[in-house]
Design a protein that fits this description.
A: about 130 residues; alpha+beta; 5 helices; B: about 850 residues; 6-stranded mixed beta barrel; 27 helices
Chain lengths: ~130, ~850
Amino acid sequence: MLTAEAQRFTLCLEQIGMNESRDLFPGALEMMILQTLRRGPLHGYALAQHLKQRSGELLQIEEGSLYPALQRLLKAGALKAEWGLSSRNRRVRIYTITSAGRKQLERETSAFERMLAGIARVMKPVRS
Amino acid sequence: MNWFWKRRREAEDEIQTHIEERTAELIEGGMSEKEATQQARREFGNVTLFTESSREVWGWTWLDRLVQDVRYAVRNWRQEPVYAVVAVLTLALGIGGITTIFTVVNGVVLRPLPYREADRLVIVPEAYQSVVNGHPYVPPPKDRDWPTRTQFFDGITQVEATQLTMPESETPVVRALKVPPNYFAVIGARPAQGRDFIPDDAVEGDRRVAIITHQFWQDRLGGDPAVIGKTITFSEGSMTVVGVMPERLQAPFFESVLLWLVVPEASATGTHIGRMKAGLTPAEAQREVNIQIKQVEREYPASAGNRQAISVRQLFSADDDQRLVLILFAGVGLILLMATINVANLMLSRMLARSHEIAIRSAIGAGRRRLIRQLLTESLVLALMGGALGFLASVAGVRLLTTGIPQGFSRSQEIYMDWKVMVFAFLITGAVSIGFGLLPAILSTKTELVSALKSDAPQTSGSRRSQRLRRALVSVEIGMATLLLIGSALTARSFWNLINLPLPIDTKNVVALDLQLPPNRYETEVVRTALYEGVIQRLKVSPNIDNAALTDIQPLGGGFRYSLVSSQDGGGNSNGAPSYGALSFGVTSGYFDTLRMTFIIGRAFQDNERAIVINETFAHQYWPRSNPIGKQIKLGRAEDPTPWVTIVGVVKDERILFSHTVMAKLFMPCRQCNFLLVKAATSDAVATIRQGIAAIDSGILVTKTQSMENAFSTNGSIVGARFRTMLFLTFAGAGLLLAFAGVYGVTAYAVSQRRREVGIRIALGATRRAVLQLIMEQAVIPIVGGIAAGLAAAQVLVRTLTSYLYDVTPTDSAAFVFVPMLLAMIALAASFIPARQSTRVDPLITLKYE
């Protein structure tokens, strides 16, 4: 059921031996990053802040885990990066989503929604 | 690579910035800087881990780890430099030694044949009744077209020896070969400069073309770069040079040839040389030839009476070389094995000492594979350094060895480190490093964590286990050293025997002279014979001269005459030819003594005796199991009117080492001999000889004199004595050095590991002598054990190798006695010296150390 991308991400994570936050299924982080960046380019720290805010503290994400995820997306061509300046005038890397990234996001989103729907059905109480 | 480093830094910078931003934010919110930093880091997570993970995405971790490993290894070596230095030197010795030997063997000893697929070349000499008439019989060309009828040759060509005279030169005689235009194509060689012959070249007349050898170009033309197209003037006419053959190329059988002339195919005469179709054996070719001959004889019955038989013989055979190579590589392999084992032992000892540290690394999370990889990296770097050093050493070694080669034998370019050698060295290095690195790496990472941490604390000599292991290592090292050293000794001896085969002839102070008789005075044979006898007699009584003889063909490389021989026994040769063939030489009785030829059985003939002397190959080929002395043979076919002659002696083969061809030879009393060989007591006898000859008849011209010793050198067939000695010494020396160094190294290291124990014992009150005694006693057992095991193994090894060893019996006790003695002495010294050293040092210092 998982997309090829998601499977690859899963493999990646296993190899690193990293235990991502227990709340996330593999690939979720990438999906959320892409979604956030869809609205506009951001640098690493800003991205972390965004995710924290938007999820309303519901998700526990180690900030650091963003960076490997960003690199993976970069390698996969879903993002491109440029060096620029932050609001505090520090040298930062700014990530922008690419058209390939947008397509990937669509795929991931629909896969995710299907999965949700499937789970919801299973979890629904049986009509008596 | 810069890009790689940049990426690394980028990842680090980025994460750093992230943390800084968060910290700044927190500070703005009111936290202290210290707390803010801590908080930011905590929120971020494991910085190192995430940095590495980010980098890993791009797949360069292996490089990262490699750099890390190398740094770690270097740091280690700085702590104990002696170990690293010894390891590298040992490897350098091993790898350098075999690279040197390999280069030399490759370039000089093996002299690989410069012809394409040389094993397909055969020589097909035809024997005619040449000897009876005194002049060679040459049948009309159409009788000789049998080769064109056969289907088993890819190509057939001919070769005939001839001679040109270069006026105004110190050595006017230039030996040459007359060949048809397809000669080089069939032989499978191409000129290095210029071009091959083309059919248009082969015209009679003034415009003759020639292809010259490299030697001719260098020696006679001074290496003129504009050699192609140059005209050389000979007494017989001028030739234009159209090609120069490559350096290594010498004509088979005619090794002193300097020049090839081209003649039209139709009028070519001479011996046939053919290239068999791939997959044919000479025996099959022989059968085909016999069939074709019968057919030709049917068509041209006139020549049938004259033609006898044709035998097909492989032009080159390489049996002796193969054996030599085998021995050499066996010996060399042993040396390398010894080096590898030495270093492996060394590494193992060292790793035992480091087991504490390895245990700790294991505890903090290094996986076993990672540890092994790190240790292997260390081995690899050691091996690379050793290999590089060894390679440099071998370059120097090769240069050293080549200075031992006699003049004119080999240009320095003959022995060169070609790419094959470098690849070889590289592969060896790789194999060696894995060899000596893998086992210690696997073994040492097996250490059980707890026991290692507990008991291998630096305060003592180590647990019982590591002590036992160290002692075992000493045993193993000595055992292997014994085994390998004995093996090397025997191999080296075998090699020495092989390359030191005494020359069956002695060319010291032997001078060869060409005599040219004045015209009109010596027309008849009787007169000529009388003259020659007179010359010989005269010379023999001259002071300074030992003996003299005449021959009709110059002994080395002047050409040959192939004759048919029949025996009363009636048997045939191994190829199924109906009769025998052999090279025949006419000589006077003094020939054998002049050249100090060794008779295996029998004796030389007297001048008027109807007798014949054959060589070893002849005897083995046709009478492999019986004594040829007394047997009767004749030249020609059995029914020919030539007289039967008795074999009275068998001489050792004039086998020139590393030449590829040995043929059956026979020596018969001289008919028309123009070459004088004189054995003198000193090296400057030429004047005396000329005087002697002039005294008999001042009209006799001595047209060429050559010292036979020089002939050998320029022939290139003999490897100088000094060179041989040096090769052998390199061989043996490397082995010895390695064995000694290895045994000393491992033993000394093992003892020095007990330094602390010694210090403690002394501090507790033991006398120095008692401690020393203790250590020595404990050292003896592994030494003796190792030697015993090594001897036993050597016995087994030698028994299996006996068939390959040349002239060496398995009970050659010298090696079996000396080697253990030597090694034992070294091992005891290696135990004693460090032990004494450690008892001398103030125990307080010892205990504080490390």
